[in-house]
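#onboarding

Welcome to the new folks! Below is a worked example of what a typical request in this channel looks like: someone posts a single protein sequence, and someone else replies with the predicted structure as tokens. Don't worry about understanding the tokens yet, we'll cover that in week two.

Example request:
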Amino acid sequence: MYIKGSEPFRIIRHVPFYPLEDFQCGPASLASVLNFWGIPVTPEEIAIDIYSPSARGTLNLDMQLYPEKKGMKATQYQGSIEDIRNKIDSGYPIIALVDLGLLIYQQNHFMVIMGYDENSIIAHSGKERSKTIALKKFIKTWEKTNFWTLWIRP
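Example response:
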């Protein structure tokens, strides 16, 4: 289940990666997690159902409803670093919403978190597979979304 380096580093293997296409981070993140659980679906198929051109993105509620439509359980909630670590340790990749904008400019972005160590998280984010993100930087951007988290499971 875990690979990479020493014991303090934990990462779930075989979480599929779908590079981001034009504001499609929601569909790409869902495709990643759903395919991990054996539900074959592409970001393009998901985008047809849930992408909102007027919002230039995907609504949080649709991120929860789509997996449920596919027979999965999905819960959105205010997460914590401890919760993410517990989910990863239990074999669950997690979707987090972060705000990458500056000052008053909001730029929400969904990413799939599938690993961590003491000072960082590992996520499929945008066009980057298994990106290492410093924990302090991640928390700063995640906090701006009130620590929005999506847990999808069978």
